[in-house]
Design a protein that fits this description.
Shape: elongated
Order of helices and strands: HHHEHEEEEH
CATH architecture: Beta Barrel
Mean pLDDT: 79
Strand content: 25-35%
Radius of gyration: 18 Å
Strand order of the largest sheet: 3-2-1-4-5
Largest sheet: 5 strands, antiparallel
Number of strands: 5
CATH topology: OB fold (Dihydrolipoamide Acetyltransferase, E2P)
Helix content: 25-40%
Low-confidence stretches: 6-21
Length: 148
């Protein structure tokens, strides 16, 4: 029975576009994975979104655009950033690409971001802010040897 279910799930994934399948299968945004693989993990809120959320809503469904967001750091779990620092993210967004659309910032809500090396930070997508924050706090305490 398990083999049949696995085969059906695999067949369904193969029927989707390669891009959509790739971004849903390989998108690993668990806090522990991100924490281990990233040089920087931090909580920030947008100061400025360009184009702003209202302008994004008015774009055509097949629009390609570049979005710049200026973030203010609130908390850092890993890396050299401190509360009050600003970080700029620049993303090229193709609204026809299912994976690209996940990178659009459409609200002035705080988000958890992460980056490696010189790459522009990315936003954690799969978890709520509260769940991700709790998990990251546990990871930091475990790393520091507190509450093992």
């Amino acid at each position: 029975m398990r083999t049949t279910i696995a085969m059906l799930v695999t067949a369904a994934l193969l029927m989707t576009t390669q891009r959509a399948a790739a971004c849903t299968i390989f998108w690993d945004d668990r806090p522990d994975t991100i924490f281990q693989k990233s040089d920087s993990v931090f909580l920030a809120y947008p100061l400025k979104i360009s184009p702003d959320p209202d302008e994004i809503q008015q774009l055509r469904p097949d629009a390609f655009f570049q979005q710049t967001v200026i973030w203010r750091v609130v908390r850092s779990w890993k890396g050299n950033l401190s509360a009050g620092d600003t970080v700029v993210t620049v993303r090229s967004i193709d609204r026809m690409d299912a994976c690209s659309g996940w990178s659009v910032t459409t609200r002035y809500d705080p988000r958890i971001l992460y980056s490696s090396g010189d790459a522009s930070p990315a936003v954690i997508q799969g978890l709520s802010l509260e769940d991700a924050t709790l998990q990251l706090n546990r990871l930091v305490r475990r790393r520091q040897g507190v509450g093992k």
